[in-house]
Amino acid sequence: RVLRWTWRLTYLSAIAGIAYIGYGVYQDRHPEPQVEPDPSKKTLVILGTGWGSVSLLKRLDTENYNVIVISPRNYFLFTPLLPSCTNGTIEHRSIMEPIRTILRQKKARVKFYEAEASSIDPERKVVRLIDTSEIRGDITETEVPYDMLVVGVGAENATFGIPGVREHSCFLKEIGDAQKIRKRIMDCVETAAFKDQSPQEIDRLLHMVVVGGGPTGVEFAGELQDFFEEDIKKLVPDISDRFKVTLIEALPSVLPMFSKQLIEYTESTFKEEKINIHTKTTVKKVTDKTVEAEVTRPDGTKETVVFPYGLLVWATGNAVRPVVKDLMSRIPAQANSRRGLAVNEYLVVQGTRDIWAVGDCAVAGYAPTAQVASQEGTFLARLFNNMAKTEAIETKIRELSSSLNLQPGNSAAVSREIEQYERQLRRMKDVKPFKYSHQGSLAYIGSEKAVADVTWFNGNVAAAGSLTFLFWRSAYLSMCFSTRNRLLVINDWLKAKVFGRDLSRE
Ligand code: FAD
Ligand code: NAI
Question: How far is 48 from 9, CA to CA, in rounded Å?
Answer without folding.
Answer: 45
